[in-house]
Design goal:
Two copies of one chain form a homodimer. The first copy, chain A, folds into three domains: 48 residues, Roll (SH3 type barrels); 220 residues, L-asparaginase, N-terminal domain (Rossmann fold), CATH 3.40.50.1170; 130 residues, Rossmann fold (3-Layer(aba) Sandwich), CATH 3.40.50.40. Helices cover 22% and strands 24% of the residues of chain A. The first copy, chain A, is built from ten helices and 23 strands. An eight-stranded mixed beta sheet of chain A has the order 9-6-10-12-13-14-17-18, with helices on both faces. In chain A, strands 4-3-2-1-5 form a five-stranded antiparallel beta sheet, with no helix packed on it. Chain A has a four-stranded parallel beta sheet with strand order 20-21-22-23, sandwiched between helices. In chain A, a hairpin with a 2-residue loop joins strand 17 and strand 18. The N and C termini of chain A lie far apart (61 Å). The interface between A and B is large, with 66 and 67 residues.
C-alpha cells in the first residue's frame, strides 16, 4: 500500500487500477478509507489498498484566523453573506470512536468540509452563538439567533444571511425568525443536513450551496432550503413558518404544508415558483423579540382527560391544542367533556388555540356542532397554521404587553404569511 | 314550477330543458333543490325551478324492520357482510336548520342514502353499538366495536365486516382492532366519509361500495378503505395500524405511513398491490381486549419541561412521547435535561416509549449520543410505529397481567404488522 501524506482540505490526484480521480480530501472516520470530494460534489470513499499512487495538487491553506467578525475565506464571489452556525448534523462529523457524530466546532474545519459555498458567495461575517443539537433548543436560542441575524441584516455590505441548524426543530426556529424579524429587508435562509458531510450520502453540500444561492437572491423572506427529492439534484426554498420536518431520515425531510415551495434552487440558479416578498435594502428591519415562554403544545388523543388544562393553566399563559379533524375536542355528549374546563380557564385569562393534528388542511369550526361549541367557549381556531408555528406565535403574541385583550385578533392577524390564503389550499 | 311528490329513496325520471335524468331522490336540506343520485353514482342538485316535469319510476319500499340481527335489505348479492355503524360523517346528513350535520341514526334512512352497497353484498347483520363522532371516542368504544366485530366474524355465513366510523380518530380504532382481534380469519374493513352523503362532493358512496368489495375479498386484515385521490374514482385499502388522517377535509385524507396500500379497490374489483394475510374460515378468531387506559401521548416541543413526566407518572402506567428527529429529547448538555426524571420514573415501573413526531420514517437511537443516553435511561424506541398506534398498543400491552416485566419485549413484538420491515421504508 502506498504512503499518502494527505490532509483534509488538500486537493489531490489519485491513480487507481482503471482511472485517475481528482478531488479534495475529507476527514474520514475510517483510517483504511480515503474520503474524497469529487468535482461533481459527490463524496466517494476509496479503500486505501486500491490506491496505486497519489499526489497533492494543492495544499489546503490552513492559516485563516477565526476571529468572529473579520473572518474571510478566499472567494472570487462578488456577493456577501453572513453565516450563522448553531450546531446540528450540518455542523457535525463522524466520531470514529462511537460510530455516532460529533460537532464540527472549528470554523476552519467547517470551511474544509464545505469549500464549494465560497465559490458562490463571499462569507463576510460568521457568528457561532452556540453549538447544540436542535432538539435541545429553547425559545432563548431563537432569540439569540434572531439577534445574530439582525446584526448581519443591518450591515450594508451583506446581501443575505445563512443559518445552519439541526433538523429536529429547525421549523420552530424558522417560524420564530419569521415573526421576530419585522419588515424584513433581505433573504434569511436556514439550512441543514440529515446526514453528516463525511458520509457519501450526505445532503449537506448541496443544501449549503443552494442556501448560499438563495441568500443572494431577490427574496426577502425567512426560508428553509433543503433537498426537494431524495436525489442529490436540486433544492426547494420553502416558507419558514409553513414547512415541517416530515421524515426522520430522508434527505427531502422538509415539506411545505398547505403551501407550495417558493423556488427551485440549484447551486448556480434560482427558479421562482410563486410570488414572494422582494428585497429592499432601504427597508429597515426591526427586531421584535418580545416572548412569553409560558406556552405549551398538547396533542389531543382519544379519551384524554381535560385535567391537562388545569395542569398547564397553573403555570402557563396559553396553550395550543392539536385538535382532531376540523378542530374537534370532546364536547357536550362525550364522556370526557372538555367544555367546562375550557370555559373556566379561558374566562380566567388563559389563551386556548386549536391547530390541526392532521398536519395538512384547514380548521373549520362551523361544519359540526362540536366546533361551534368550542368557539362559544372561547377557543381560537387557527385556520391552516402549523401547530409548531402556532406555539411560537402564541408565545410571541403573549409576550407583547400592548396586546393584552387582543390575543385572538393578533393570533389571526397574518404577520408573515403564517396563515394561508384560502385559495392556496 | 311543477309539483313534485317525491320522497327520498324513490327512483324518478326528470325532464329538464335539454335532457332527461333518471336517478334516486336523496334527502336535501334545501327545499328549492332536488338532490338526485344518478346511475353513475354521482349526486347532482337540481334547482326545482329548472324541472319541467317528473314522474316516479319506482317508489322506495320503506317497510323494512330494523330489528338488529334479522335485518335484511333486498339484495341479489351472493356474499354476506356484517355492518357496524358507529357514527361520524358517513352516518350523518345535513341539518338544514343549523347548516351543520346531524346523525343518520335510522337504519332504513341509512339504506336510503346508500342503496348501492346492497348490490355488491348482502348485509346479513347490522349492529349500532353507539352513534358518536369519533373525536368523542375512548378506549371503551374500541372494545365495544371489537366485540361487535368478533360476533360477526364467528358467524359462518358472514364473509367479512364493514365498520363505518368518523374520520377524526378512525386510525386509533383501526389500530385497536388490529391488536384486539388475534388470529383474524376474515376481512375487517373500516370506512368513513369526509363530506356527508347529501353533498354533491360526498365521498361516502364510493368509500362504502369499495369497503363492501374489500369485505368479501381474500384479505384477512384490519383495513381502512377510502379515496385514493381527490377524484371520486377509486379507493385504497390501507393497513389499519399504519394509516393516518393527514388532511382535515380532503377526500383522500388517509395515507399509509411508512407503508404502501394493500390494494386498489373499485366497486366491482380489487387489485392487490402487496402480499397480505389470506382469509381462512377455519382459523378461530380470538378477542383479546385486555386494556389499561392509564396511558398518555405527549408531543415534545422545544423547551418543554420534564415536569410533564411527573404529572403523567402520578396517575398513569405508561407514556408515548413523540420525540424529535430520530427519537431525540433534550439530554445531558441541554438546559432542560430530561434524563434524571426519565430514569426516576422508569425505575419505578413507568413505561416510556418514543415514537416519531416527524410522522414518516424510523427512529434510530444509535446515530447520535442523545439517543444512546435515552436507551440507557430505559426509553423504548418504537422503530417506525405510528405514535397513535403506539398509544393503543401500550395500553393493550399494559393491560396484560402476564406481560408485566416484558413491556419492552412486547412493544417491539410485531403482532399485526404495526412495525414495518426495514426493507419497506
Amino acid at each position: 500500500m502506498v504512503e499518502l501524506n494527505f490532509k483534509p482540505g488538500d486537493k489531490v490526484r489519485l491513480r487507481l487500477a482503471l482511472e485517475e480521480l481528482d478531488g479534495q480530501v475529507l476527514e474520514s472516520s475510517d483510517s483504511s478509507v480515503l474520503l474524497l470530494k469529487l468535482e461533481s460534489g459527490y463524496n466517494v470513499g476509496i479503500p486505501k489498498e486500491n490506491i496505486l499512487a497519489g499526489r497533492i495538487l494543492s495544499k489546503f491553506n490552513d492559516e485563516k484566523t477565526d476571529e468572529k467578525n473579520d473572518f474571510k475565506l478566499p472567494s472570487n464571489a462578488e456577493r456577501n453573506v453572513g453565516l450563522i452556525i448553531t450546531g446540528g448534523t450540518i455542523a457535525s462529523k463522524l466520531d470514529s470512536r462511537t460510530g455516532g457524530v460529533k460537532p464540527l466546532t472549528d470554523i476552519n474545519e467547517f470551511a474544509k468540509f464545505y469549500p464549494e459555498i465560497f465559490k458562490i458567495v463571499n462569507v463576510k461575517k460568521i457568528e457561532v452563538p452556540f453549538m447544540i443539537a436542535s432538539e435541545s433548543m429553547t425559545p432563548d436560542h431563537w432569540i439569540k439567533i434572531a439577534e445574530s441575524v439582525e446584526r448581519m441584516l443591518i450591515d450594508k455590505e451583506i446581501d443575505g444571511v445563512i443559518v445552519t441548524h439541526g433538523t429536529d426543530f429547525l421549523g420552530y426556529t424558522a417560524a420564530a425568525l419569521s415573526l421576530f424579524l419585522r419588515n424584513l429587508n433581505k433573504p434569511v435562509v436556514l439550512t441543514y443536513s440529515q446526514r453528516s458531510i463525511d458520509r457519501a450520502s450526505s445532503d449537506a453540500n448541496l443544501n449549503l450551496q443552494c442556501a448560499a444561492r438563495m441568500a443572494v437572491s431577490d427574496c426577502a423572506e425567512v426560508m428553509i432550503v433543503g433537498h426537494a427529492t431524495i436525489n442529490d439534484d436540486f433544492c426547494f426554498a420553502m416558507p419558514g413558518n409553513r414547512t415541517r420536518k416530515l421524515h426522520s431520515s430522508r434527505r427531502d425531510a422538509f415539506k411545505p404544508v398547505n403551501d407550495i415551495p417558493i423556488a427551485k434552487v440549484w447551486p448556480d440558479k434560482v427558479e421562482f415558483i410563486r410570488i414572494y416578498k422582494k428585497r429592499d435594502d432601504k427597508r429597515k428591519v426591526e427586531l421584535d423579540i418580545n416572548f412569553n415562554d409560558k406556552v405549551a403544545l398538547v396533542k389531543y388523543y382519544p379519551g384524554q382527560s381535560s385535567d391537562i388544562l388545569d395542569y398547564y393553566a397553573l403555570k402557563h399563559k396559553g396553550i395550543v391544542i392539536e385538535a382532531a379533524g376540523l378542530g374537534h375536542l370532546p364536547v357536550t355528549e362525550a364522556a370526557t367533556n372538555w367544555i367546562p374546563r375550557l370555559k373556566k380557564h379561558i374566562k380566567e385569562g388563559f389563551s386556548v388555540c386549536a391547530a390541526a393534528q392532521t398536519i395538512y388542511g384547514r380548521l373549520d369550526p362551523y361544519v359540526y356542532s362540536n366546533g361551534r361549541e368550542l368557539v362559544d367557549a372561547g377557543v381560537i381556531f387557527l385556520e391552516d397554521m402549523l401547530a409548531e408555528t402556532a406555539l411560537v406565535k402564541l408565545g410571541w403574541v403573549l409576550g407583547h404587553r400592548g396586546w393584552i385583550g387582543k390575543v385572538k385578533e393578533k393570533m389571526l392577524e397574518n404577520f408573515a404569511g403564517e396563515i394561508g390564503d384560502r385559495l392556496h389550499v
